[in-house]
Amino acid sequence: MRYLPHTPEDVAEMLAAVGAKRLEDLFAAIPPECRRREAMKLPAPLTEWELNAHIDQLAGRMAAAPEYKVFVGAGSYEHHIPAAVGFLASRSEFVTSYTPYQPEMSQGTLQAIFEYQTLAARLLGLEVANASMYDGASALAEALLMAVRVTRRPRVAVARAVHPLYRQVVRTYLDPAGVEVCELPFGPDGTTGGVGEPAEFAAVAVQSPNFFGCIEDVKSIADTAHAAGALCVAAFSEPLAFGLFKSPGTLGADIACGEGQSLGIPRSFGGPGLGMFATRRQHVRHMPGRLVGETTDIEGRRGFVLTLATREQHIRREKATSNICTNNSLCALTAAIFMACLGGTGLRELARLNYDRSEYLKDRFRAAGVGLPFAAPTFNEFTAVFPPGYRETYRRLLDRKIMAGLPLEPYYPELVGHYLFGVTETMPREELDTLVREVQS
User: What are the φ/ψ torsions at residue 60 (nearest 5 degrees)?
Assistant: First the structure.
C-alpha cells in the first residue's frame, strides 16, 4: 500500500458515500467473465539497479538509431535538428502554456501559433492553415469529413497508395458517419492509376510523396476532381518534399494535410506528431481544429485571438465542425522554429540533400542488379524488389543491426518481395555503400 494514499478508513468512508460495501461492488457492471479472477503473476521485487538493468535489456530489443542503421521511413523520418530548435521549444513559457481562451493573457501563445499557421500555409501553398491537429492520419480523416460537409456528398475516394495506417484511421472516422470510402488502385509506375468517375465523390484523396515514395500527378487528379465538383485532398507524410517539389496548393489541391514530424520533431518511437492542415479561404468555415486570427484592439494595437470559434467544442458545440478541440501546439511551435531557422533557402537545400541521398542508394541498387519496380520520381524513399531468398538476408542484416527496408507484403499482399527503403540526410554515403555490399553478400 506504499503507493496508495488512502487509509482503510478513507476507503470505507468513500464506499459509504456511494452506497457500496466493498471495492468489488464498484465493478459490478463488468460481466464476470471479463474480470480477472486471480492475482497478476508479477515477478519478485527488484532493486533499483536490477530494475534499471532489466529496462536496459528490454530497450535493447528495439531496433532504433543510432545503434541500428535504420533504412526505413514509412511516415516517420530521422533528420538532423538544429540545436536552437530544442532550446527554444523547451522554454518554460512554451511548454507550460495551455489553451489560449483568454487573449488578454495569451498573446505570446497566440502569436506563436499564428506564426506557425503563416509558415505552414506558405509551405503548403494554400491561404489558411489551422493551429495543427493530432497527427497526419487524423488530419486526412478530418479533411475528408470536411469535404463531405462542403459538397454534401456521402462518398469519398482514397488512393490505395496512401499510407495504409492513414487509410485505417480514415475508415475509423468515416464508417460511423455513414460515409462510403472507395479505394483507387495504383498503376505499374507506383502512382494512382486513375480517378474514374468522380461525379459522385465529395473528394479524391491522394498522398504525394505516396507510401512508396512516388510523386503523384496531383494537378491532373485535382483537375479531374474539380471538373466533377469534387474537392482534391493532398496528403503527405514528408513535408520536406515541398522544399523541392511544387506545393499541393499550387497544384490545385483544395486541402493539404499530413504529418509534420520531419519539421524538427524527434521520431520518439512514433509520437508525438504534428497534424498539418491547410485549405483555401472559401472553405475556412468548414475547417476543423482551431484557428488563430490577427486583429486590433480598441486602441488600434495589433493582437491575436482564437477566431471562428464555432468549430470548437468549447462554444456553440452543436455547430462544431469536428470533435478535434485541441491542437499539438508545442509540436507546431517546434515546426515553426525549425522552418524559421532554415528559411526558404535552407529548406530547399535540405530537401535537395535528402533527394540526392535517396537517388544515390537507388543508383547503387540498380547497378547491383536490385529491381526497382516503380518508375515514377521519388523523394526520400523508394521501393525495391528482391528474390525470395532475401528474407533470410533481411534477418541476417537485422542481427547485424541493419534494418534493410520495410516489407510491403503485410500491407499490399500482391507486393511479395517488395521492400520500402528510406534515406535522409542523416545517412552518410559510407553507410549506403555498406548496405549495398551487405545486401549482395
Answer: -65, -15
Amino acid identity for residue 374 in this structure: F
CA 144 to chain centroid, in Å, comes to 16
CA distance 3 to 222: 58
Tell whether omega for the bond before 410 is within 30 degrees of 0, i.e. cis: no
d(C-alpha 384, C-alpha 400), whole Å:
21
Bridge partners, residue 255, by sequence: 233, 279
The cell for 26 is 464498484
Residue 44: pLDDT over 70: yes
Instruction: Report the alpha-carbon distance of residue 327 to residue 98 in Å, rounded.
Output: 10
0.85 exceeded by the pTM? yes
Rounded-to-integer distance, Cα 8 and Cα 3, Å:
14
Per DSSP, the three-state class of 362 is helix
| Angle at CA of residue 120, ends 222 and 163, nearest 5° | 55
Calpha distance 160→56 (Å, rounded): 39
DSSP structural state of residue 110: H
pLDDT, tens digit, 9 for 90 and up, residues 56-110: 998 888 877 788 899 999 999 999 999 999 999 999 888 876 778 788 888 999 9
List the end-to-end C-alpha distance of the chain, in Å, as a whole number: 58
